[in-house]
Amino acid sequence: MTIRSGAALALGLALLASVFPWLGGTAAAQGIGSRVFVVERASGSLAVYDLATRELLPKRIEGLGNLRHATMIFSPDLRYGFLATRSGQVSRIDLETLERAGEVFTSKNSIDNAISQDGRFIATAEYDPGGVTILDARTLEVVARHEAKFTRDGKELRSRVTGIVDAPGNRFVCVMMEGAEIWIIDASRPGFPIEHRIATPPNGMPYDAMITPDGRYYVVGHLESDRVSVLDLTRPKQGVKEVSLRDPAGKYERGAPVKLPHLASWAVAGRWIFVPLVGEDRLAVLDRATWRFERSIPLRGHPVYAVRSPTEREIWVSFSGEDDDRFVQVVDVESLSVEATIELAGRIYHMDFTPRGSHVLVSANRANKLLLVNAESHEIEDEETLQSPSGIFGVWRAFRIGL
Amino acid sequence: MTIRSGAALALGLALLASVFPWLGGTAAAQGIGSRVFVVERASGSLAVYDLATRELLPKRIEGLGNLRHATMIFSPDLRYGFLATRSGQVSRIDLETLERAGEVFTSKNSIDNAISQDGRFIATAEYDPGGVTILDARTLEVVARHEAKFTRDGKELRSRVTGIVDAPGNRFVCVMMEGAEIWIIDASRPGFPIEHRIATPPNGMPYDAMITPDGRYYVVGHLESDRVSVLDLTRPKQGVKEVSLRDPAGKYERGAPVKLPHLASWAVAGRWIFVPLVGEDRLAVLDRATWRFERSIPLRGHPVYAVRSPTEREIWVSFSGEDDDRFVQVVDVESLSVEATIELAGRIYHMDFTPRGSHVLVSANRANKLLLVNAESHEIEDEETLQSPSGIFGVWRAFRIGL
Question: Structure pTM?
Answer without folding.
Answer: 0.90
